Each structure stands twice: as structure tokens, then as C-alpha cells.
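User: I'm putting together a small comparison set for a docking exercise, and I want a reference complex before I start. The sequence is below, and the ligand is S-adenosylmethionine. Could you produce the 3D structure with the ligand included, as C-alpha cells?
Assistant: Of course. I'll restate your input first, then give the C-alpha cells for the complex.
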Amino acid sequence: MKNEDAISYVTINGKEQIATINLLKGITLYGEKLISRNGNEYRIWDPFRSKLAAAYIRGLEFDFSNVANILYLGASTGTTVSHLSDIIGISGRIFAVESSTRVARELISNVSSKRTNVIPIIEDARKPRNYFSIYDKMDLVYCDIAQPDQTSIAIENCKIYLKERKPILLVIKTRSIDVTMSPKDVISQEIKKLENNSFEIKQKIDLAPFDKDHAMIKAIFRAR
Ligand code: SAM
């Protein structure tokens, strides 16, 4: 078993699997395995269900040790949010934005009602000034909303809420942006948008084979 910051790797039947230490002992969210080792309970993190787990497996370098506040756009039912909640622990906060009331209901009943470091915000990420519960600047913006204008939405949210010199992790679902362009060209186009808005690109990760035609971009916000 290996621990790298808050991300862990547990070996099961000779196979190394990514995991987080469960903040809610004995409780699972999406049928993930729980493994007890050395007094900790590990939650196996499924890279086919979470693009952040896929990104780590595909080479993402991201250290959460200085991250306390996260603005998460596109929380859905909270699969990735729950692992981030394990990672940042009870002293951190995840402001989890989701516009669909149907999935937000699950986010609230299964995740934020049990994990006190998750604050649900049922709003459209296109209207970031409507987030009534955010009182601080963020150490990280994570965006996975699968919309054609998602990069612009992410940029607007960063301008309001992200601290200078802090990172964004942006998931690009190329098929949601333009089905007629090659995925590679869509990714280059979205990267250009970030660069034109004072972001410095640090990593570009292809999420295949976990998610086809998806990339994760890590970039630093250099301010306006
Ligand atoms: N990030 C999630 C995870 O890893 O568990 C999966 C996110 S799913 C690909 C995209 C989510 O973004 C959907 O739940 C969708 O309702 C939400 N979404 C789409 N447009 C949005 C918007 N304008 N504002 C907020 N959420 C949005």
C-alpha cells in the first residue's frame, strides 16, 4: 500500500488500485469496495466512474496538501465530490454546484447531508454571482459540466472565486463542444481560451481508456 498525500494506492490480488481514506467509516456511495488496512478504511476509487481518478491513473500531478476550499462545478450525484471530501478532510470545504434538481436531490441525501465538508449549491454555473453560500476565495476550481460553453463558464467562475496563482482542473468532453471537429482540435481550441484569459497550462491529460474523447487540463490562474 502506498500513500501519496491524500491519494492512496491499495494492492488487491496483486493489482494496485487508487483509493481514498473513507471519512464515513462503513458507508459507501456507489457500490465501491471498502478495504481495511493498518487501521484505515480505504474506499476504492473507480476511474470509470470518476474522471479525477482516471486523470491520476493517466499521470495527473496534483497535490491537495494546500487545498482547503474547492469550487466544484457539475457535482452531479457526488461520486467525485465524495472522494474529494475524503481527501480534504473535515477542515476543508467543497462548494458543489449542480443545476439539475433531480440529481442534486441525490447529492444532498447521499453526500452533503452526511459529509459536513460538502456544501451543495443548486444553481446554474452560468450565473456564478448567485452562489449565496460562498464567502471565501477558492484554492481550486474543478469543472466537469459537459456543456458547449463550459470553458467560458469555468473562466468566469475562476475570475470571481479563484485565488491568484491557484489551479483549475477542467474536464473537456470534446463531443459536448463540437462533434464535427477532431477531439484533438477541440482540446487545442479550449486550451487557447484558457491561455487568452491568463491561465498557464501545466498538464493536458487524455482520459482514455476510461473516458474516450475526454481530456483533463490542469492550469494556473495568473489573474487578469
Ligand atoms: N463531476 C461529476 C462526477 O465526476 O461525479 C459528473 C458530472 S456530469 C459529467 C455533468 C454534470 O453537470 C451534470 O450533473 C449536469 O446536470 C451538470 N451541469 C450541466 N450544466 C450545468 C450548469 N450550467 N450548471 C451547473 N451544473 C451543470
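Residues 197 and 224 are 7 Å apart (CA to CA). Residues 50-51, 73-74, 76, 79-80, 97-100, 103, 124-126, 144-147 surround S-adenosylmethionine (CB under 6 Å).
User: Thanks, that's exactly what I needed.
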